[in-house]
Structures are given as structure tokens and as C-alpha cells.
Amino acid sequence: MARLLYAVVQLSSILLTTTRAFQIPSTFGTARRTALTVKSADAIDETLTKDENSDIWDLSLFSPAKINIFLRIIRKREDGFHDLASLFQTIGFGDYLHLKLLDDDEEAKEDILTCNMEGVPTDKSNLVMRAIDLVRQNTGITDKFFKCDLVKHVPHQAGLGGGSGNAAAALYGANELLGRPATLEQLVEWSGDLGSDITFFLSEGTAYCTGRGEIMTPVDPLPAGQTVYIVKPDIGLSTPSVFKALDYDLLSTLDPEEILNVFMTEGVTTSNQSVFVNDLEPPAFKVVPELKELKDDLISCGFDTVMMSGSGTSIFCLGEPGDGQKFEELIGRRDDVQVYPTEFINRVGCAADGGWYQDPNAAKSDD
User: Contact 15/38 with Cβ under 8 angstroms?
Assistant: First the structure.
């Protein structure tokens, strides 16, 4: 069965289940949506999940993943990167970053990072460490250091921006604990030095991104609560390998500004399925043909929209499956696929006051 491991995470009392397999419910709807975030890691030591009110951490932040509602590749640049145009959206599936500002009497001389997920570097190459160092460098507060714990749920090579979201959370969190020496606008400006997608996570949750992805144009946030399933096969796919297989003759000719206008006026429930375009799907399917087969299976289950996110290998499905039994039979019984039912989130009303993304799972678990 697909490994659906539900982690009900509360900031007041975080609880992570460790069951290795969950049958996908045959009935989908409101009851299913209260199941919250799905997680596929093994058991996590409780010291990794202390809430923000504990004595261990000064600040705990939810670090959401993202999907690309559409993704157009515009051109290859002289520097080897590609200009793109994409509508990004945050979702209620993500990681958690816990931060503690080390006291002067602890004689801290460097930052400390721990992580529950095997293979994630905890040295200065990690984007969390780089983000904190960037805040220190650009604010001139060079004598303060942090203890950080990163609780990873978002899989690697998924097209969900897990690492970029972590970096954005670190930028925000370090700035908060240092007393907000930088403005949000400054954090946005600095974020481009770390990576292409990091800037987006400093938006309100929906943004039109161009350039390498670091040029962010705020747009009206898409409504929170839109159901979305993230389906992640175990196989990974590196972004460079996808671009290497890109056939520029097969790129969409749709104007990204016109695509954006459709989503801003009609939302993601639009009947115009032609605007759900990802120019990286064909090369990804060429490198990993099984991805195309998985997408076709999901389409046959009756979802409103099915499309790969970013450079893959995650595929997102909007709405509920029209045929829940078929979804269970085709996807739920596979051992090589993980399914994460979640929804759109944003930080509308929080960003203006300097607030961060609220953990949607904590809010639901309190209902």
C-alpha cells in the first residue's frame, strides 16, 4: 500500500505517528481532509519536535512546500540558467524549523544544526545554515549564533521546494530572534543570493515568479483550503537531468501573462485545462517514463487536474478523485508511491504584521 503515514502536528503538543502503512479511505471528503499532513519518515525522537513554548526552542516555524500551478520555460540564458514564468502556491504539507538564539554565556562560536532525515547535510552547505549566515553578514550582527533543528517531511527531488522553504523560514526566524534588524523587503532582496525559489516563500503564499524564479511579483492569493493531493513516487529526478533532456521545440507557446490572467480571474477551478502547463513534464517523462504512466493513472481516477510540480517527481492532483475506489486500487496499494493529501494555504493577514505561515495541521487538530 502507498505509505500514508499521518503526522498530526500541533505547536502546543506535537505528535508524530510512526505507522508504516495506511489504507487510503474508500470515502473521500470532509472527513478525509481532517486527516492532516502525511509523513513518510521513520519515528522521530521527541526532542526533535518540541513546541515553541518549550524551554528548548525560542521559535518554531512551519516551513510549507509549494507546487507550480503552471511553469513556462522562456529561454536559456547565457549564464546557463533558464528564464521561466510560473505561478507558485504554498501548501499545508511541509517541514518544521525550530530555532534557539544561543546565549552569550554559552560561548557559542558557530551555529548548530540537527536534522531527522538521513542524508540531509548539517554543515554550512545546508541552506538553513547559509540563510542564517547571510542574515548575520548583511545586518552586521556577527556575534550571535543559533541552535537549529530541522524536522523534514518533504522528500528530496520532489519539485516541492522543500529546501528553499527551509531557507526562507531560516531567514525569517533568524531576523525575528535578532529583533527584526531587516525589513521583509530586505529579506526578499537577500534571498536571491541563496537560490531561485527561496524568494517565493517570503510572499503571502501565491506569487508570479520570473527570471530564475527569484523575481517575485505579488498577486492576489489563491483561496486557502483548495484540496490537493501530492503523489510522490520513490524515484527521484535531479533538475539538471530534466533540463538536459529539454527539447526547446516542444515548449508551450502560450503567453505566461495570459495564463496568469486566467488563474487570477477564474481560479484553479477553471474549466480551461490548457492553462495547466508545465514545460518540464515532457523531458521528465522522457527521463523517467514511469512518471507519465503514473500521471495517466491519476487522470483516470477522475481528479479535476493532474500535473507534475516543478521538475518532479511529485505530481499534484486538484480536488477529490471522482473514483475513490479506483484511486485506492491503482495508487493506494502501491509500495513505491507516497500520497500526501493537503490543501492550499497562505499567510494573508499575517505578512503585514510580520507574521509567518500558521501550521494548518495544528489549527485542524484543535477543532
Answer: no
For residue 338, CA distances in Å to 71, 200, 244, 331 come to 23, 25, 27, 9
| Nearest CA among 278, 290, 280, 293 for reference residue 247 | 280
In sequence order, the β-bridge partners of residue 123 are: none
The label of the residue with cell 503514473 reads 294
pTM of the model: 0.85
pLDDT at residue 364 in the model: 63
Cα distance between residue 343 and residue 345, in whole Å:
6
- The stretches in the chain having pLDDT less than 70 are 1-55, 105-107, 351-352, 363-367
b/e 106-122 (16+ beta carbons within 10 angstroms → b): eebeebebebbbeebeb
Identity of residue 236:
G
Burial string for 45-70 (b: 16+ CB within 10 Å, else e) reads eeebbbbbeeeebbbbbbbbbbbbbb
